[in-house]
């Protein structure tokens, strides 16, 4: 949800995507998943296509993903990312991608969220499958899904807050709960303004309060994971989300895009990963002392 509407690379994301913390043997699967998700998202975000054409192309993308359509069957859609993902991923990975397609279809036909519950339901398709894919890829337990879901939903809401102006102006989408906007007397058209009105600011702050609760739910995740690499990755992402939420509380996302600088991202992410590693080592040492071989 950016202007101009071009595909975002991994290096341009707010949070690490397929970083060096991911084991080398798993990176091709992560790259294939990400490329397919981005390609499908670009279809849903294309301002030159109407809703019917977006749905048609997403259906064909899904058919290629599941093996029902040859990559050369439709010149207007690049199905390569879908066929490559099908070749790299297992059935669970493909299933997580198909849930993302559900969210992209929502974007094409229903560009509003009635309330917070509708927004989090949307995030359950648009964001949570990414975390579940990574957990499954690393052989983690399904018991960790709730904490991962909370983190992914928080990340998605933060991204929506960052891009709330562009989403409205370019795509006529609003991811702020409609009932909260009405309650605070904020009109949709205010999202096209040069800065947040008092009512709109209250809605943004209300969303950020919910993000804080989601991040608190996600906080135990890094120490629960068996994979040290994934634990460090999740710790870095959690810390970056907390830092971005703090910036959004202090700055107006309509006045300018609120984001962390690359040096800040590196410092926050590295510090969190190192802290997580130290805590895991300390916990392992305590366990060894209590249960000697």
UniProtKB/TrEMBL annotation:
UniProt GO molecular function: transferase activity, transferring alkyl or aryl (other than methyl) groups
Superkingdom of this protein's organism: Bacteria
Pfam (any one): SQS_PSY
Name the UniProt record assigns to this protein: Squalene synthase HpnC
């Amino acid at each position: 949800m950016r202007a101009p509407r071009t595909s975002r690379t991994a290096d341009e994301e707010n949070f690490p995507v397929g970083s060096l913390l991911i084991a080398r043997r798993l990176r091709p699967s992560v790259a294939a998943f990400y490329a397919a998700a981005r390609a499908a998202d670009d279809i849903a975000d294309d301002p030159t296509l109407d809703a019917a054409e977006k749905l048609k192309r997403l259906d064909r993308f899904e058919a290629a993903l599941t093996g029902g359509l040859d990559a050369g069957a439709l010149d207007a859609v690049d199905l390569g990312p879908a066929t490559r993902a099908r070749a790299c991923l297992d059935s669970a990975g493909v299933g997580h991608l198909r849930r993302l397609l559900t969210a992209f279809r929502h974007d094409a036909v229903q560009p509003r969220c009635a309330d917070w519950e509708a927004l989090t339901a949307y995030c359950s398709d648009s964001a949570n499958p990414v975390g579940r894919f990574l957990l499954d890829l690393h052989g983690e337990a399904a018991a960790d899904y709730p904490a991962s879901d909370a983190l992914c939903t928080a990340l998605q809401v933060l991204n929506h807050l960052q891009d709330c102006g562009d989403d409205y102006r370019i795509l006529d989408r609003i991811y702020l709960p409609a009932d909260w906007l009405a309650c605070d007397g904020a009109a949709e058209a205010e999202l096209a303004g040069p800065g947040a009105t008092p009512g709109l600011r209250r809605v943004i702050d209300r969303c950020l309060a919910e993000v804080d609760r989601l991040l608190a739910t996600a906080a135990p995740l890094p120490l629960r994971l068996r994979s040290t690499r994934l634990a460090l990755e999740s710790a870095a992402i959690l810390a970056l989300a907390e830092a971005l939420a703090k910036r959004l509380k202090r700055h107006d996302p309509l006045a300018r895009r609120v984001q962390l600088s690359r040096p800040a991202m590196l410092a926050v992410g590295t510090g969190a990963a190192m802290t997580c590693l130290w805590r895991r080592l300390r916990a392992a040492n305590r366990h060894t002392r209590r249960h000697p071989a």
